[in-house]
């Protein structure tokens, strides 16, 4: 019997048993919802706070839905997104929220490590959940991606995954790598233009590619990452069309992957930039399944932390 | 027995029986609330999403109240109002929300026809309710106006209604005309300066006026429309005072209407522009009754679509 | 038996019995929450609206939590903070909200007296609660400060309180003075630079100081006020460091107060401007207790007004 999770800031170093328990619990949540139970009441009377220092509609809404389906109250703490909120100012906000008896704080912040700082300074029994910090981690995204893969290809030891795009700045990619490697994935390939790739030493479990045609060969899962258009200027590619030719996932490239290769993307997608419309909407796409699983994974995480 | 309403994007072509059933159901809602039942629990566990691409406090709040009084959860999806959100980007948002298992999406968008586009692209059992699209339709406003009239003057076949103001750009006017004509109104008069009037061919059930003194003669209901001040520059009137002299509803003009003529306005009102303060606050004003009926009509629409 | 409170716009002239009953009720709320009752259901089915014309996260969240813990629904009415909303426009908004059957409206507005204007124009049974109007009043802050003091020093007749900082522009200071003097405080000292002090005639129950070292001598409670940085330019002090030297609460000054002097601040604090970090975080600080009490006081006020 493992100890209950108290916080979730990263998947790095989270034991395999813990990740598997969260994935199993996500399935329990999905089944409960599928059987028409609209409210689970596991977290009745609990208060969960969304503390987003970066704008987000999808992730915030997914957490809000997850919390409400468990019967919890949700407070959206209105932050001016121009606020830098760091150091003492941030910790004073934390302590104020603790004094109001919040049960969990879901935080998104552009500075990597902020959720861990909150954990370090928390004085009460509050739980901290990272909803994305800088380039570092987005653990519930890593879990929901692992869940989506497991539903179709349960044996990770035979799995070849390719993650393509702006890996360097992607917290999704890092949390995916942590989840998939802990679950024993056979091979994790990272692919992108040199300027958008992390140091190889940072992710030693992975193999690095700059040629997407080679990276996708035989892959069971292809994850394309959203290209932040404001980063285009800084990389050695003339425009979106050139990026798509080199790193976009189209049917020609998908044909080089293993039969039944899953197509995934954390969303929102840029059609014709990192993925072709017919692939995004095609039969191998699991993109909307990822969205649905996101709610179940977040229900599982909240229940794990807060249900009595 | 008519089939249940699945979506509500416009009142145009909605059968009279359906409109009457919704009005009857609104009265049931009003009576239930009046008898002290604060929560009806008809929609317990259902999730309703407000997807507003134009700022709105009144309509959004009215829908939120209606949904909560039925026991549903409400999510306000935070949209940057500068967002153009159209085409694939809009449909990707729709599919994301469907994947999160929303039961209904209430949408306001400046482009006419957007709610119908959402209906066309919806893949799941989600219901779409139009909370105002461009100049085209605002069906729950049409229903609440019909309800307000019916409470005082139940026989539409004897009813003369005048709608005065910027009819050309008014989705309220169009939904009112659809509701009143379907319910068999005797005469619907549209009045306003030529630059703010629609083509006569667009609304063949109506008679057109440019002289408000003539248009209001013998009317049973006088609806004045909010004048968007930013439109003043484009019309052939020097200023607000001149507009008021020509098209404002004051006591002198109201005296030309039928005895007991109802004064209505979709709000928020511009006092001294389209309506005189003493008329807006006077004994014939039904403006606040319209607001109250708005909640009951929206409860009826949501219950019709979502209650089992 | 006193009559039930219908509105709360200021503590001025509120009878001592009423203030004490609200403080007693706050303790009842605290105890109920401490015993694991997460929802009290006293206000099930009631709707409470946050109408904030000034941005606020802490106070809005505190009211929202209080209302939800009593089982009420909360609507956040999205106001553009650039909106001036005054006169008829404000009253039309009020009447619209009344027509939607709100049970209470919690209002913050930069113009002093706005909540009283709303009370004067309210047509229905709605309750109005002032969450801060201009420089004038912030009654729930006055109550929570009184509660925090009473928990440690129940005999107000022996109490010396010093309030230091920008008293002139502080609605917190005014509501504190009203609460403490009604509860029979022995001495209330106000201290700050001349440019930030009110007219002595405005607060005749207080003694005025410009030397904080003298003002704090023997004090049982020291309340420092947040210095709005944008006001620095208008006062005769070169910078924040100089302000801190003259009016900041540090350990050296705190040593001049009575033994066990309570350190309080309405938050959010400016460390090193009006208070030293080690005092704010030190053993005599009651700042986070104030935050916790804020929720209980607001529960008590809402229950007093709305519970049947």
Unreliable segments of 5+ consecutive residues of chain A = none
N-to-C series of helices and strands of chain A:
HEHEHEHEHEHEEHEHHEHH
The total beta strand count of chain A reads 9
CATH architecture of the largest domain in chain A: 3-Layer(aba) Sandwich
Assembly type: homotrimer
Largest interface: A-C, 21 and 24 residues
Q: List the domain count of chain A as a whole number.
A: 2
Q: What value does the average pLDDT of chain A take?
A: 93
Task: Note the main sheet of chain A.
Answer: 5 strands, parallel
Helix/sheet category of chain A: alpha/beta
Using the alpha-carbon principal axes, give the shape of chain A.
Answer: globular
What strand line-up does the widest sheet of chain A have? 7-6-5-8-9
Task: Give me some keywords for this one.
homotrimer, 308 residues, Rossmann fold, 2 domains, four-stranded parallel β-sheet, 9 strands, 38% helix
In words, what does this structure look like?
Chain A is globular and about 55 Å long. Chain A is α/β, with parallel strands linked by helices and 308 residues long. Chain A contains 11 helices and 9 strands. The first copy, chain A, folds into 2 domains: 16-138 and 291-306, Aspartate/ornithine carbamoyltransferase (Rossmann fold, 3-Layer(aba) Sandwich), CATH 3.40.50; 139-286, Aspartate/ornithine carbamoyltransferase (Rossmann fold), CATH 3.40.50.1370. The two termini of chain A are 16 Å apart. The first copy, chain A, has a 5-stranded parallel β-sheet. A 4-stranded parallel β-sheet of chain A has the order 2-1-3-4, with helices on both faces. In chain A, helix 4 links the parallel strand 3 and strand 4 (127-133). The interface between A and C is medium-sized, with 21 and 24 residues.
